[in-house]
Amino acid sequence: MTSLTEKYINPFTDFGFKKLFGSEVNKDILLDFLNELIKDQGKITDIQYLKNEQLRRSEWDRKAIFDIYCQNERGEKFIVEMQRAKQKYFKDRSVYYSSFPIQEQAKAGDWDFELKAVYLVGILDFVFEEDKNDSDPFSQIEVQLMDIKRKKVFYDKLTFIYLELPKFNKKEEELESHFDKWMYVLKNLPLLAARPARLQERVFERLFATAEILKFSKAEIIDYEDSLKVYRDLKNTMDYAIEFSAVENFAKGEAKGLAEGMEKGIEKRNAEITQNLNKKGFSISEIAEFTGLSKNKISEILNHNK
Length: 306
Hints:
alpha/beta, two-stranded antiparallel sheet, 15% strand
């Protein structure tokens, strides 16, 4: 086992995220979170968890595995994804994922094509590339299909909500809205020693009680440590890439050094992570889900190191 020094779990780990938001016993936490994000669309009174693995329609298609998939009492579907590291085509992935709850609403026979709303919520531990130099501190992006000429929403039943957590920098004493409090918790939970005085709502009392590591069983602690190791490996991939690219760029004195350095750094750390996960007994499919690498690339890395 590794040494756990934090009091509360890291919600960016797979175990931590599922512990807080993905269990029936804690669905009131997810319900409060979703209601805060879509409060203008009408309050949700209940949610039902759905199977998060979406099977491909043919052997040539790719399946999708959502972090959390649920529906409310109106039949509206919600995909909630915790994205731990920057992914080049995350927006494309979001659109692809949203196609599954749309397609599954198809009905045989005489169907008029009426659809229930679909929401995809992305909780991001990074800032989109086009936003990295943006001085706007607003950390929530909400996207719907729009008529670009009239600047008017064309279709409001497909909504993408992205929370760029690195852009949220409010301190505890600056928290005003319920949204502020949620963003503060998501970003700072593993750094806190106790529940902040400003977070006295019942939902946060439940969340902090659920997140306290010392209350876990031995099996849960082991699972969390494994999940934390994967998260740290992924985070170190990016940190290593940035450091490597900076050195490369300085030495070469060329702009392309940054991109080349990042690519080399990421490749090196991806290889290390793949090998470590393989030694722990993870399958190629599981490694692909953790890292975002293709199965062919993973096989190439593993075969290269035999």
